[in-house]
Amino acid sequence: QEQLVDSGGGLVQAGGSLRLSCAASGRTFSRNVMGWFRQAPGKEREFVANIMRSGFATSYADSVKGRFTISRDDDKNTVFLQMNSLQPEDTGVYYCAAGPLGSSRSDDYYYWGQGTQVSVSS
């Protein structure tokens, strides 16, 4: 079983950057696909990015391609989301998640972090 702790959120101006981290405490981190999702006020949770085991492949939502980069450090059981050129529409609570499949569906992820708030001002 994995326990995930998200961190790194904050308030930034449009065009700024943030780096989110997600630390896992279980023993199966390296075997899991890791993902980031976000939820804006009044909207459903949406896929942002995922990274396969050993980091051999990544996938991004169209809205963040070219601006966000997901990475993982299996030695430290941590996954990162580097967010550049942030826009107000990127505002929301960001959650990391772990699961067995390289999927963009939240139902395919079994473990979730508590979320970290990202707010981008115009």
Topology:
Elements: E1 4-7, E2 10-13, E3 18-24, E4 33-39, E5 46-51, E6 58-60, E7 68-73, E8 78-83, E9 92-99, E10 111-112, E11 116-121
Parallel strand pairs: 2-11
Antiparallel strand pairs: 1-3, 3-8, 4-5, 4-9, 5-6, 7-8, 9-10, 9-11
Q: How would you sum up this structure, described in words?
A:
By secondary structure, the chain is mostly beta strands. The chain contains no helices and eleven strands. The chain has strands at residues 4-7, 10-13, 18-24, 33-39, 46-51, 58-60, 68-73, 78-83, 92-99, 111-112, 116-121. The strands form two sheets. Strands 2, 4, 5, 6, 9, 10 and 11 form a seven-stranded mixed sheet that branches. A four-stranded antiparallel sheet has the order 1-3-8-7, with no helix packed on it. Strand 7 and strand 8 (78-83) form a beta hairpin.
> What is the distance, rounded to the nearest whole angstrom, between the alpha carbons of the first and last residues?
40 Å
Please, how many helices?
0
Q: What portion of residues is helical?
A: under 10%
Estimated structural class: mainly beta
CA gyration radius, whole angstroms: 13 Å
The description of the largest β-sheet is:
7 strands, mixed
Q: Name the overall outline.
A: globular
